[in-house]
Amino acid sequence: MxxxxxxxxxxxxxxxxxxxxxxxxxxxxxxxxxxGMPYPPPPPPRNGLGxxxxxxxxxxxxxxxxxxxxxxxxxxxxLALVFGIVGQVRxxxxxxxxxxxAITGIILGALSMVxxxxxxxxxxxxxxxxxxxxxxxxxxxxxxxPAVPGEDEGGADGNxxxxxxxxxxxxxxxxxxxxxxxxxxxxEPERYPADSPDVDVAAGETAFRVKLTYVxxxxxxxxxxxxxxxxxDADGDPAEMVFNLKDTHLTLWSQEGLGAGETIxxxxxxxxxxxxxxxxxxxxxxxxxxxxxTVWRGPVS
Length: 301
Hints:
Number of strands: 12
Distance between the termini: 130 Å
Order of helices and strands: HHHEEEEEEEEHEEEE
Strand content: 15-25%
């Protein structure tokens, strides 16, 4: 028996076309896929620069607000600004997910640089103002100052222009007048409260402040270019100098001389073990080579 034939438009001879296997998005072409198979995981976000910018900005703004370390805060602020900008660019591209941290680094970095610039301007203005007061008529002791008793060539260091200090330690709050008319006063130490936010000291230590005042009662200018007091505690160990934004020692450090009739003062802060404050000793020379040391001694109340 002869089978009937069907001629189709696509299959000569009458046979239907073979079924087509659909191409699966999960498998190879022509092969069935596996529904539910996960896509390859995306690469991890590149958040390192944004985090770095924020951390540098935080540290930079802290250092930039301190008179002594403002320059370091400015450098950290610049780095925070750069890292923050790069981190923000990565976040816009979708390569990072911490755009907020990057923006924080940019803001804090910019503030650190501004604060450092303000401090730099203030330091320059103080120095310029001190120098614009006019030339000092005479640096060091007066030519008519008497020689140190018992010495043929002036002070203890052999310099004939060195004026002697106090032969005995002075109590805090009193003044000592050198022979050229420079009067130096060290005020009584003032203890900071234990919870004071102005200074940061180690555990077991106490911070205190002293005030230094110069009055030139002589007829000529004097040199005060080395106004840095040194303090030792009751155990004979040196006290650590701490920095407080309210201290005014920067004015003294920038002042090279003091004219006749002029007065200048500044405050200094120190820290020492709390059990070694029964008697501290402060040593000061207004200008090394021109004045011998004078010592003040007493308790920190």
